[in-house]
Design brief:
Oligomer: single chain
Number of strands: 10
Structural class: alpha/beta
Shape: globular
Distance between the termini: 10 Å
């Protein structure tokens, strides 16, 4: 399953991304959790301590220069199809069956920026979506700058996280338009921190043609991460993940039903 998660800042998209990755991993799947938000917090949401976070790939200047050939800077040319197939194993952080990668910022990524870092990150994303068998959960900001048309069409779904505030639904509708422009077929919504039936009905009505497929109730424990001892194979799901697992599995089942 290849999923992108988007939404207005502060609505809980990173928390949902961590729970989706955690649920898929606990189901026995190999998962790549991809932090594509420049304000990278997916590692913390998964439970990694600050000193164990992966270095964003956009900041690995030596790697970018080596793979793209930009170190020579011959006439300003560089490779647009650099080698990336070893990056998930080499530069990720392991959390059980999950490999966490951080992309880092892509300056003007959605506006045709042609720079070595952009070339490497875009090639990696194409490889992750089209060239690998693992499940992919991609935590994005409210924009879709990282997704080109080929990768967008190959994603199984874009999940937009909303809450009871009207601005989050406005962002969801904007993301819906952008996703349609690049050919994404399934744009779905999940409500966070909206537990009352009346709230959910208001959200559903306000979303228009975006299907609301589930909700995640508020739980303060999620701020501490969804895994304990989140390092290598020795981690264990935090109680909050176990408690919320039925809701997260219901969301994944609804996505799967629509494929």
């Amino acid at each position: 399953m290849k999923l992108a998660v988007s939404g207005k800042g502060g609505v809980g998209k990173t928390t949902l991304s961590a729970m989706l990755a955690g649920a898929l991993g606990l189901d026995g799947q190999a998962v790549i959790a991809l932090d594509a938000d420049p304000d990278a917090n997916l590692g913390a949401a998964l439970g990694l301590p600050a000193d164990a976070q992966p270095t964003p790939l956009a900041e690995m200047h030596d790697l970018i220069a080596e793979r793209t050939g930009s170190a020579d800077n011959y006439g300003g040319y560089f490779k647009l199809n650099p080698k990336v197939d070893d990056i998930p194993e080499t530069f990720s952080r392991r959390i059980g069956r999950i490999r966490l990668l951080a992309l880092g910022g892509m300056r003007q990524g959605g506006q045709g920026c042609l720079c070595p870092a952009s070339a490497l990150l875009k090639a990696l994303l194409v490889h992750l979506v089209l060239g690998r068998d693992e499940s992919l959960v991609m935590d994005m900001e409210a924009g879709l700058e990282h997704l080109g048309r080929a990768t967008a069409r190959s994603m199984d779904a874009l999940i937009v996280v909303v809450d009871s505030g009207p601005w989050s639904r406005q962002t969801a509708r904007r993301v819906r338009r952008m996703a349609g422009d690049i050919g994404m077929r399934r744009i779905l919504a999940v409500a966070n921190r909206a537990d009352e039936p009346a709230e959910l009905e208001e959200i559903r009505a306000d979303l228009g043609d975006i299907s609301l497929i589930g909700q995640v109730p508020y739980d303060a424990r999620l701020a501490r991460g969804v895994f304990e001892n989140a390092s290598g194979d020795g981690c264990s799901p935090a109680p909050v993940l176990r408690d919320r697992l039925p809701a997260v599995k219901a969301i994944l089942s609804e996505v799967d039903r629509r494929l």
